[in-house]
Amino acid sequence: LLIEFESGAKVHGGRSSRTKPQRSLRFSAKPIYGIDKFKYPFFSDKPTVNSFETIVLRNSSGDWNNTHFRDGFLSQYLIDEGLDIDVMSYQPTNVYLNGKYWGVMNLREKSDESFVTANYGVELDKLDVLEEDTFIILGDRIKFSEDVSLVRNSDLSDDAVFEEVSKRFDLNSFVDYMIAETYLNNTDWGHNNLKLWREKTPLSKWRYLLFDLDVTMRRFSWTGAETEVFIQKMNEYT
Fold it and tell me: Considering Cα of 90, then 228, then 62, then 86, what sign does the dihedral take?
């Protein structure tokens, strides 16, 4: 099956990704190119998710030229195991640029509002999307500031308080998210690679986006099985 799109394209990722010989690429559907969505089921694990504003060809960043699929494989594993986490799907892809072979890259969803709109069908003007708690990707942080203030200034051992917090944060998802990040020993997280979102409705809850697992599972010596990432993070934030 052959599909063809015209789209915008740009180099994707931060310093670790952009300094690799094989650059990551981000493709955007925009009316200027004649389309507003890429309408195709790129990911077999999500056959009903078939409309995307943005698609990424990722070079594996911190895992480049090592396993080259660590983040993709682990993300796919978390999806297949049915964890209640918002994880970017993965599809290994042979890439050609201007007719020349560019190697294997990881076709991924983008970890931002485009993921939410594709997977949850929420309109952009109905979203708050934050990065590392303070940077606003979309919407505002008014509700988040209010909700975090409740957590920080209340006694969570009080059942009534805990019940109120559970109405503001998706705690079932948060538990799975924390287990995944700490069990896989993601040391490039907490201070970095942290995004969360909510729909602007009274009953909506904050959910976290899990992405960028490139340095986990002993990619470096300090991310091995003996590393206590959970304890590290608790010490950092207490």
Answer: positive
